[in-house]
């Protein structure tokens, strides 16, 4: 039912975790997929191989998402290869423990640079193409932390809260150009980012707070992301889609 035939989608952090699952599923739905990575070319190559073996089309693009210059150059490569950009999923991110009394300026700056500025650079680079095309679709990946806060992770939570208000602001601003802007806010999902924290949680306090009684799988995020990317959601913009097993119940 989700048909992305001939759509061009760029997924930042498409090499691992939620981004990887989204890339593979988007290709299965017919999209031409630009898989972005930062450091782990091997991981990006695995995703490309999986997509191509299934008959899909994929391109690997590298950029430090915190670098305005590198992100703009990345968008140029996507346009050179595919001629357009229909969907961007702002998924690359980092999550570092940072108790406020210990929070270093470096961790604070790095988190804001990657989680917030990175999304801005991708959006600023993609929107002129989308305006020219008279259509586009932007999906920002926030977090439950952006809604309820997260102790010992204030820098992360504050960037994710900012993505939620960025989503709402741009949804209204870009609607006249037929560009939709939405957000997916995941709860706990088993990926490289969360693996250690989930493994260390021997008392089960993570799962205890999830009504569905388990953490999510990356594919369970890919589906909702691609719903927003598809024509099944053409009247949805400015929305925060919570995908968290019921952990944060907000409308
Ligand atoms: N997992 C969870 O429980 C959870 C919960 C809520 C929200 N989220 C959000 O969901 C998104 C994906 O999370 P995940 O768990 O799938 O993460 P992950 O497994 O750690 O993967 C992170 C991805 O982001 C890329 N990346 C990180 N920093 C980068 C940088 N400076 N430049 C370029 N690429 C960079 C990585 O590429 P390289 O490996 O090449 O560096 C990788 O592809 C994030 O925004 C995260 O905050 C996750």
Structure description:
This protein is of the alpha/beta class. It has a single domain (8-243), classed as NAD(P)-binding Rossmann-like Domain (Rossmann fold), CATH 3.40.50. It contains 9 helices and 7 strands. The protein has helices spanning 17-28, 41-53, 68-82, 105-133, 145-148, 154-174, 195-200, 205-208, 218-229; strands spanning 8-11, 32-37, 57-62, 87-90, 136-141, 179-186, 240-243. A 7-stranded parallel beta sheet has the order 3-2-1-4-5-6-7, with helices on both faces. Helix 1 (17-28) links the parallel strand 1 and strand 2 (32-37). Helix 1 (17-28) packs across helix 9, helix 3 packs parallel to helix 4 and helix 4 packs parallel to helix 6. It is globular and about 50 Å long. NADP nicotinamide-adenine-dinucleotide phosphate is lined by residues 13, 15-19, 37-40, 43, 64-66, 91-95, 114, 141, 143, 186, 188-189, 191-194.
Which properties best describe this structure?
251 residues, binds NADP nicotinamide-adenine-dinucleotide phosphate, alpha/beta, 7-stranded parallel beta sheet, 46% helix
């Amino acid at each position: 039912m989700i048909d992305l035939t001939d759509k061009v989608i760029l997924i930042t952090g498409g090499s691992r975790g939620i981004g990887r699952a989204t890339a593979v599923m988007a290709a299965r739905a017919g999209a031409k997929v630009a898989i972005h990575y930062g450091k782990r070319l091997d991981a990006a190559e695995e995703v490309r191989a999986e997509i191509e073996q299934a008959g899909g089309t994929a391109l690997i693009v590298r950029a430090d998402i915190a670098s305005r210059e590198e992100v703009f150059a990345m968008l140029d490569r996507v346009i050179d290869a595919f001629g357009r950009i229909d969907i961007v999923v702002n998924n690359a991110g980092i999550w570092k423990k940072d108790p406020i009394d210990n929070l270093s300026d470096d961790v604070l700056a790095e988190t804001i640079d990657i989680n917030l500025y990175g999304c801005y650079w991708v959006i600023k680079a993609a929107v002129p193409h989308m305006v020219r095309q008279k259509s586009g679709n932007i999906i920002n990946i926030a977090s439950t932390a952006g809604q309820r806060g997260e102790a010992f992770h204030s820098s992360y939570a504050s960037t994710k809260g900012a993505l939620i208000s960025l989503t709402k602001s741009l949804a209204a601003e870009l609607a006249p150009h037929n560009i939709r802007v939405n957000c997916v806010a995941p709860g706990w999902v088993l990926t490289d980012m969360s693996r250690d924290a989930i493994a260390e949680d021997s008392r089960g306090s993570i799962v205890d707070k999830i009504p569905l009684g388990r953490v999510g799988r990356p594919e369970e995020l890919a589906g909702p992301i691609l719903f927003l990317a598809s024509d099944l959601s053409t009247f949805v913009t400015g929305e925060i889609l919570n995908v968290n097993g019921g952990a944060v119940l907000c409308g």
